[in-house]
Design a protein that fits this description.
Length: about 220
């Protein structure tokens, strides 16, 4: 379903499968702008520009009080309440924890790899990539998997980036000394000089972090 106005875009929920191209600008008070812009050298996060992103990042931009957030084009993909990976992810997490408690490192790593590969399978084949085939002893284009889904893959990356962006900006907000910084951000983590208490018990209490924590407990 096409989204026609900025107001319609902003009425959606964090967990909706919504993707949009937006023009944006953040005030100078925002240390870590959260809307990605793709370049030939990867993603950058400028203070203003045009972004193609998922709704979690747009919601974070709202909470950071972006001074400009205008819809160029948007799409809402309807979904049901069925949690199609719920039982599989729960099984993987439970088995990983069980083998970890048993001291069986090999089995623990097996189940860790299995659950972590789920995202890779969702995104497999969406981008040109060549892999080496041991059977044919030659390289070939990596084809889509049976569960490849660009909407799910895009939402996952958007959601994780938004959670990280929220935590990073919360560190700035909660630090009275204004000396805490975040650097070397990689996929789903970062290095910071903020103490563990500030990050764990302060910066992870935002809307997106709460949503993330609730869904991480799927296997409990």
């Amino acid at each position: 379903t096409h989204i026609n106005t900025t107001d319609d875009l902003l009425r959606h929920q964090i967990t909706d499968l919504v993707f949009a191209s937006v023009d944006f600008e953040f005030p100078k008070s925002v240390r870590y702008p959260c809307l990605p812009v793709r370049t030939m050298n990867g993603l950058i996060f400028p203070r203003k520009g045009r972004s193609i992103c998922g709704f979690p990042e747009i919601r974070l931009a709202q909470s950071l009080k972006a001074t400009k957030l205008e819809l160029i084009e948007g799409l809402h993909v309807p979904t049901t309440d069925e949690q199609i990976f719920h039982s599989f992810v729960g099984q993987c997490l439970n088995n990983r924890e069980r083998y970890k408690n048993d001291g069986d490192r090999v089995s623990e790593l097996f189940w860790k790899e299995l659950v972590n590969s789920s995202y890779g399978k969702l995104a497999q084949g969406l981008k040109e990539r060549r892999v080496y085939n041991l059977k044919s002893r030659d390289t070939q284009r990596l084809q889509e998997s049976k569960v490849t889904n660009p909407y799910f893959a895009s939402f996952i990356t958007s959601f994780v980036r938004a959670v990280l962006g929220e935590i990073m900006n919360e560190i700035v907000t909660l630090d009275p000394s204004k000396k805490k910084i975040v650097f070397s951000v990689t996929t789903d983590g970062f290095i910071t000089n903020a103490d563990e208490g500030l990050v764990t018990y302060g910066a992870t209490k935002g809307e997106l972090s709460t949503q993330y924590t609730q869904r991480r407990r799927v296997g409990e």
